[in-house]
Write a structure and sequence with these properties.
With about 475 residues, the chain is an alpha+beta fold.
Length: about 475
């Protein structure tokens, strides 16, 4: 019986095991196993990308590669273009995941977890708020400077800017007028009806501390197993450590930016042109806002922990890693759709918190599944220093709802956890059976030198839509 890879023309396998093919002069690298090779139209999409966009040498398909109906490109991709960027290859800029670590003098009891998550549900909302949570001056600073000026005010150390990609600021702007000019005066016809308005200032004041998508979440984990004690020591991780993982993005500001420039100008923008500069700056403003939204959530988590857990010890930020993000590297515009950047240890200065580990990332699987702290100390330039942001889906969400709709989500979980809900989504779409096997993903990480596991974490609770 032929595998999916063997039935597709032009697919070859490198001696190290990854698959690849050439299209229009570009190399498509697929860090996949036979079992995880997609049987949908993902490969056709990748061929189309190479024939439509100015790909710089190669594009990367990561082990979680899977196609979502709402996206033009499969998730689990890293796509470099030379001299231009495309909103078609991304969603709203700066969707990402970040983690807090903390410890307590006594193990958390179920009643402790309940108190914390009930408080989180009160402090953090789904989609958008009815009232503003920052004033005009505060919002202006966030849009212009990301989290540069607020991190201490919001309860963290200035040095913790170092755990954010780009130190929590995609681009600095001189004045608010510059920001306002890169957003449209008229509402884009592509902006979803559920977004109440298209003014980034009005929307920005109401989308902080928000889980802005049904796949977004806050989850609690505890340390369960050590793979590399030296790395754990460098990251201040120990057997008594707990972790809060946050998945959130740039909210309405990101949506307004993305839809304003999507499906125009052949979906290609040169930042040296007037319209290209506007499109790029719009994406950078959304990037700044994405960092601000997650930091606001971290602030609220820290406050809830401090209020509800009298035995709490220090709360610190582990890392914040965007996975839908636009960055620039030597004239190349790197589009990361469902991929995180794991910098090598040597790329950090001598006194940097990651000088021995490289970028750490809390890698999740599926709701109720184990998670892992991973990094890539040596770095992998062949993968453009990127790795999967999660295990990835085996089947699409609507298929999962249809296939597992009569099965209790609790009965399908790998670990028994406390599940907290906002009640605004069909939870059966998150059935763990709809996701790829995390152990196989980790094997591919190590086989292709994408990342190395440092610790295994077990889930205790999850707050989801």
């Amino acid at each position: 019986m032929n595998t999916a890879a063997e039935t597709l023309p032009g697919i070859q396998q490198d001696e190290s095991g990854y698959y690849y093919f050439f299209e229009n002069g570009a190399k498509v690298v697929l860090y996949l196993s036979e079992e995880l090779f997609p049987d949908d139209n993902s490969i056709e999409k990748l061929r189309y990308l190479c024939n439509t966009f100015p790909v710089d040498e190669k594009i990367i398909g990561l082990p979680d590669l899977h196609f979502k109906i709402k996206n033009f490109v499969p998730s689990g991709m890293t796509i470099p273009l030379q001299g231009q960027f495309s909103p078609k290859l991304l969603g709203p800029n700066n969707d990402g995941m970040g983690a807090l670590s903390f410890s307590t003098s006594q193990p958390l009891a179920p009643e402790d977890i309940t108190r914390v998550f009930q408080e989180l549900k009160r402090r953090i909302v789904m989609f958008r708020r009815s009232d503003a949570v920052v004033n005009e001056n505060e919002l202006e600073d966030l849009l212009l400077n990301g989290i540069t000026n607020v991190i201490e005010e919001w309860g963290f150390k200035k040095s913790e800017l170092n755990v954010f990609e780009d130190k929590g600021c995609s681009k600095r702007f001189d004045d608010l007028k510059t920001v306002e000019q890169v957003f449209p005066d008229k509402r884009s016809p592509l902006l979803p009806e559920f977004v109440p308005g298209h003014d980034p200032l009005e929307r920005g004041s109401r989308c902080l501390g928000v889980l802005d998508g049904t796949s977004h979440f806050i989850e609690l984990f505890r340390h369960a197993e050590s793979f590399d004690p030296a790395m754990e020591s460098a990251l201040n991780v120990h057997p008594q450590t707990y972790f809060m993982l946050v998945h959130a993005g740039s909210g309405d500001v990101g949506l307004i930016s993305h839809r304003a420039y999507l499906d125009q100008h052949d979906n290609l923008y040169n930042p040296n042109s007037e319209i290209g500069a506007m499109a790029f700056d719009s994406f950078m403003v959304a990037g700044n806002y994405g960092f601000a939204n997650r930091l606001f959530i971290y602030r609220e988590i820290k406050a809830a922990l401090e209020e509800m857990l009298p035995e709490l010890e220090e709360v610190t930020l582990l890392s914040d890693c965007p996975h839908d993000y636009l960055s620039v590297d030597n004239g190349r515009f790197i589009h990361r759709k469902g991929s995180v950047k794991l910098e090598a240890a040597h790329s950090y200065s001598e006194n940097h918190v990651w000088e021995k580990t490289g970028t750490p990332y809390l890698f999740p699987s599926a709701v109720g599944g184990d998670a892992y702290i991973v990094s890539n100390p040596e770095g992998n330039p062949q993968s453009l220093f990127t790795a999967s942001h999660g295990a990835g889906r085996l089947i699409k969400k609507d298929q999962a709802i249809q296939q597992y709709g009569t099965e209790s989500i609790e009965s399908a979980l790998q670990n028994e956890i406390m599940l907290f809900r906002y009640g605004v989504d069909t939870i059966e779409g998150q059935n763990p059976k709809a996701f790829k096997n995390v152990d196989e993903i980790l094997q591919l990480f190590q086989r292709f030198h994408l990342a190395t596991p440092i610790s295994r974490l077990v889930p205790l609770a999850s707050l989801k839509a």
